[in-house]
């Protein structure tokens, strides 16, 4: 009786691993093809491309670095993305925690406003933001790009962390304050460590959206 059951478990496990392997290959193959295509000579890529390239070349990468200002553009993108993530995390934590733990009039309106702001298409805010940046002299700067990205990432961060803080029992902070922590100490030593999964999620979404 035990042998058929063990065989069934083995078959199910093999089928599961095979399915995971197939999905992994299916998802990773476009990335692989993109990378190997960037390393093929032009003639081979157009006439007879194979799964494994016969010859490799770095010609396209040399042309990219020689004919464009790609390193500077990449650095600007990295600066904007990291700045957006940092500001989104700080502002979202402050707003979400304050709305969750403090008695603030109209806090439901604040959360609803964040949700409604996220529903607007980014293109609808392009012209007003450009006019505002031109009026204060911030057009064509990295700061204006960071602020523009914050209009997209911060509502999502506040909404997500508000739901996360709302499910966290306040008794944990009270216990920390009974043991001698201040309100800030309880927040730093109790709330933030327990909020790491939510914070990481917001950081990843902010980085991808920016």
UniProtKB/TrEMBL annotation:
BP GO annotations: transmembrane transport
Alphabetized CDD domains for the sequence: TM_PBP2
Pfam families noted in UniProt: BPD_transp_1 (PF00528)
Stretches assigned to the ABC transmembrane type-1 domain: 74-210
Family, similarity comment: Belongs to the binding-protein-dependent transport system permease family.
Membrane topology field: Multi-pass membrane protein
Entry-linked PANTHER family: INNER MEMBRANE ABC TRANSPORTER PERMEASE PROTEIN YCJP, MALTOSE TRANSPORT SYSTEM PERMEASE-RELATED
Keyword Protease: no
Protein name: Carbohydrate ABC transporter membrane protein 2, CUT1 family
Compartment(s) where it occurs, according to its Swiss-Prot or TrEMBL record: Cell membrane
Record-linked InterPro entries: BP-dep_ABC_trans_perm (IPR050901), MetI-like (IPR000515), MetI-like_sf (IPR035906)
SUPFAM superfamilies reported for this sequence: MetI-like
Entry keyword Cell membrane: yes
Segments crossing the lipid bilayer: 14-35, 74-97, 109-136, 142-165, 186-209
GO cellular component, one term: plasma membrane
Keyword annotations of the record: Cell membrane, Membrane, Transmembrane, Transmembrane helix, Transport
Highest taxon above the source species: Bacteria
């Amino acid at each position: 009786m035990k042998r058929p059951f063990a065989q069934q478990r083995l078959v199910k496990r093999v089928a599961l691993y095979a399915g995971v392997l197939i999905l992994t290959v299916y998802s990773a193959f476009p990335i692989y093809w993109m990378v190997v295509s960037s390393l093929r000579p032009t003639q081979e890529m157009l006439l007879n491309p194979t799964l494994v390239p016969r010859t490799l070349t770095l010609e396209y990468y040399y042309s990219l670095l020689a004919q464009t200002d790609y390193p500077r553009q990449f650095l600007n993108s990295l600066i904007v993305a990291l700045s957006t993530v940092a500001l989104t995390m700080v502002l979202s934590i402050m707003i979400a925690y304050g709305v969750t733990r403090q008695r603030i009039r109209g806090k439901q309106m604040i959360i609803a406003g964040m949700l409604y702001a996220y529903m607007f298409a980014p293109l609808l805010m392009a012209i007003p933001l450009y006019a505002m940046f031109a009026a204060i002299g911030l057009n064509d700067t990295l700061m204006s790009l960071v602020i523009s990205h914050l209009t997209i990432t911060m509502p999502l961060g506040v909404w997500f962390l508000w739901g996360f803080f709302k499910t966290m029992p306040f008794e944990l902070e009270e216990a920390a304050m009974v043991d001698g922590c201040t309100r800030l100490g309880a927040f730093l030593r109790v709330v933030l460590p327990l909020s790491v999964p939510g914070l990481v999620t917001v950081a990843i979404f902010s980085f991808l959206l920016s």
